[in-house]
Design a protein that fits this description.
alpha/beta; eight-stranded parallel β-sheet
Length: about 325
């Protein structure tokens, strides 16, 4: 097969084909189809290398299969390079022949906030307008975008260590028509939604400060020895995860307090499919917490949506060429 003839969906093309609202819809449809009934077919493989980590994330669902090859290089940020990079290969589910190549970094930056939005849309109070976001990287910004799709966001408080990056992030929010200010961690006490999008390995704020009506999203880590939220917040919250088995193997926010004997595995209230199916009591007292570590089916759901939209934009003759091995 001539790999050079495969469609290549770069970051700009992905953004045009699948805007945030469409990505949220793709994730919801995947969940409703039962994608979590069997879980990802192969666990994510993480290999430590000298500069960081290499990740191999395969999945299949419906007429498609796919695999993401990603790298995490913490040292890159010091030299102005992306911390996370990747490539996604979309495959035909029956023949396993390649259909398209996608920018894996852009795909991750889109599907992660889309997944968060699916959860927050069912957990957050309808009038949620005040966001506090920890972090100033791509995930922080895309999460602000995603929250604006589902809630009437009117103000964003930004918590980060680098004053220059805070300033640039605030300008970006204001250019998008949202009031934004730099704040300290204590600002969570006035937040409706708290977004944790960092590389932190220790809790970012005292969980006792989070008001009972608030929803917290923690997406920064997939490692069992790192966390962004503390035990008190986990204990107080209605806790939703993508998948119980995956969370109990990768989510340090949950595993660290369990390992310390401060929580039990039954602290998890529900997974995403149960939440989307309406089987979660979101009126329970206390905050709501969504802990995400990222799963391969999420990449596949959004990649397939992008490919189908690309395919539908072609003429019949172009589709025949696209579909030919």
């Amino acid at each position: 097969m001539d790999l050079g003839s495969l469609p290549r969906i770069d970051a700009d093309t992905l953004g045009r084909l699948v805007p945030m609202r469409a990505a949220v819809t793709a994730v919801e449809e995947a969940l409703r189809s039962g994608v979590l009934a069997t879980g990802d077919p192969v666990p994510r493989t993480v290999t430590d290398v000298r500069a960081g980590q290499l990740l191999f994330m395969p999945a299949e669902s419906g007429p498609y299969a796919g695999v993401k090859l990603a790298s995490v290089a913490p040292g890159n940020t010091a030299v102005g390079l992306p911390r996370i990079a990747g490539l996604y290969v979309l495959l035909d589910g029956e023949t396993l022949l390649p259909l398209a190549l996608l920018d894996g970094t852009a795909l991750t930056s889109l599907r992660t906030p889309a997944v968060s939005a699916v959860a927050v849309d069912r957990l957050a109070v309808p009038e949620a307008a005040r966001l506090v976001v920890f972090g100033t990287g791509p995930q922080a910004w895309r999460h602000v975008e995603a929250m604006r799709v589902i809630r009437p966001v009117s103000h964003v408080g930004v918590v980060a260590r680098d004053a220059g990056r805070i300033s640039a992030f605030l300008d970006r929010c204001r250019d998008a028509g949202v009031r934004a200010t730099g704040v300290g961690p204590e600002a969570v006490r006035d937040a409706d939604i708290v977004l944790c999008c960092t590389t932190a390995r220790q809790p970012l704020f005292p969980g006792r400060l989070v008001p009972d009506h608030a929803t917290v999203v923690a997406v920064g880590s997939h490692e069992p020895d790192a966390r962004e939220v503390d035990t008190e917040l986990v204990r107080r919250s209605t806790l939703v995860v993508e998948s119980r088995p995956v969370a109990l193997s990768e989510a340090g926010d949950i595993l660290l307090p369990i390992g310390a004997g401060e929580l039990g595995a039954d602290s998890i209230t529900a997974d995403l499919s149960e939440l989307v199916a309406g089987r979660v009591d979101t009126a329970r007292p206390g905050p709501r917490l969504f802990k995400s570590v990222g799963m391969a089916w999420e990449d596949l759901a959004v990649a397939a949506a992008a490919y189908e939209r690309l395919r539908n934009s072609f003429s019949m003759e172009e589709r025949m060429v696209l579909d030919s091995p």
